[in-house]
Specification:
Subcellular location: Cell membrane
Structural class: alpha+beta
Organism: Cloacimonas acidaminovorans (strain Evry)
Number of domains: 2
Number of strands: 14
Membrane topology: Multi-pass membrane protein
Main location: membrane
InterPro entries: ABC3_permease_C, Lipoprotein-release_system, MacB_PCD
Largest sheet: 6 strands, mixed, barrel
Strand order of the largest sheet: 3-4-9-6-8-7
Shape: elongated
């Protein structure tokens, strides 16, 4: 148990002789710890927000889960699998992926075209539906036009906003869709597969690279360009009817379909997802080094206090306080400053982040003249990690001053005083 006199002395050393609360000499230490904690919280919360925002954009464009055949094979008889998923409380939509060329007048552009069934696709993705115009987030959904299942499946195509702009097309325009492979034999040699489709809708995916490259067509037209058989698809996009615990849908589907490859949204764009995770780690480490530098101020402050109060400390030793008591005295000072800095840092950081979350003061520019609100997402694990790291660095920063206490010779210091 800590000696009460040690607690009393720790309070006196913190407050100084003529002041209440924290003495002026300790303000820089407190400010450094507060700013360090605030920076760590803001960085981790913003990076969490980016990750959550990217997740919403990817799952809004595609779906939360993808089922595909192992070994790069196609899925045959997807209707039976979709019906089975329906019974398991999952929405499902087959997809055929083609790399095609779009031609309008003299402009020819490549596109990554997804063949879908509109009636099923709307249950797994919101991309080809009217967006929520009241949302503060960037619009994701149809900008103009509407998807009529019958017309779209027969001769319709939906283009990303960037792709439509580069082609110079609008609703109702007819474009030529070509396969880059020359695999149709004729009397004049091999020619590519060609169809004329009408632009039925233009969408925004919320990510510039998607808007500039993606398009959607009916699955029957996709079967034609891919040379597939009816009932054949590249993969099936899946979304649970209701919210489930993290990783629970994956576990359920892997158990039900052991012969298929099950992937979640993070594998759809792995480079982007890995970059977000690495950036969060890197920013946390950078802010952590800044916090460590700030902790040097605490080390120097304690060393200065020990040097100035050597005679007092020697007298305390002579009166019966042990080295352990003196170490507890300065450790209590450090822990008090650290605790106050953590509380202030977390409080101020949370306040700033809440202001950003509900007002959207800070915005970031996005390609195409768009902008997004700097995203924020709180996580209890971040608060816990920052608190533990702050205390750990504080304890490590006082090890050197505590070692200096062992060198104090009480008898010699009293003789010098006399």
């Amino acid at each position: 148990m800590i000696n009460k006199s040690v607690v009393f002395l720790a309070r006196k050393y913190l407050s100084g002789r003529k002041t209440r609360g924290i003495g002026k000499a300790h303000y820089l230490c407190l400010i450094g710890i507060t700013l360090g904690v605030l920076s760590l919280l803001c960085v981790t919360s913003v990076m969490n927000g980016f990750r959550f925002d990217i997740r919403n954009r990817i799952t809004g464009t595609f779906a939360e889960i993808r089922i595909s055949a192992k070994g790069g094979e196609t899925i045959k008889g997807y209707s039976a699998i979709c019906n089975q998923l329906q019974d398991m409380k999952f929405s499902a939509s087959p997809v055929i992926r083609n790399e095609l060329l779009l031609k309008y007048d003299s402009v020819v552009l490549p596109t990554l075209c997804f063949g879908i069934e509109p009636n099923r696709h709307k249950n797994v993705s919101s991309l080809l539906q009217k967006p929520d115009t009241g949302s503060k987030e960037i619009i994701q959904g149809l900008l103009v036009g509407n998807i009529s299942p019958e017309e779209f499946s027969a001769s319709g195509i939906a283009l990303g906003a960037g792709l439509a702009s580069q082609l110079g097309v609008y609703l109702g325009d007819e474009i030529q869709v070509l396969s880059p492979m020359f695999n149709v034999p004729t009397a004049f040699g091999m020619i590519p597969r060609i169809r004329f489709l009408k632009v039925q809708a233009i969408f925004a995916a919320g990510m510039p690279e998607y808007d500039q490259n993606f398009s959607f067509m009916g699955i029957d037209n996709a079967v034609f360009f891919a040379s597939y058989s009816p009932g054949e698809a590249d993969y099936i996009e899946v979304k649970p009817f209701s919210q489930m615990r993290k990783n629970q849908p994956l576990k359920t589907l892997k158990k039900a379909f052991p012969d298929f490859q099950i992937e979640d949204w993070s594998s759809f764009d792995p480079n982007l997802y890995s970059a977000i995770r690495f950036e969060k780690f890197l920013m946390f480490v950078i802010m952590l080094f800044m916090f460590i530098i700030a902790s040097f101020n605490l080390t120097g402050n304690l060393l200065k206090t020990i040097s100035q109060k050597k005679r007092e400390l020697g007298l305390l030793k002579a009166l019966g306080l042990t080295d352990k008591d003196l170490q507890s005295l300065f450790l209590l000072q450090a822990l008090f400053l650290c605790s106050a800095g953590i509380i202030l840092g977390l409080t101020l950081g949370s306040l700033l982040l809440l202001i950003q979350k509900y007002t959207g003061i800070v915005k970031l520019g996005l390609g195409g003249g768009n902008s997004i609100i700097l995203p924020v997402k709180f996580a209890f694990t971040d608060y816990l990690l920052i608190t533990v790291v702050a205390y750990l660095i504080t304890i490590l920063s006082v090890l050197l001053p505590l070692k200096r206490l062992n060198k104090i010779n009480a008898v010699e210091l009293i003789k010098r005083a006399v």
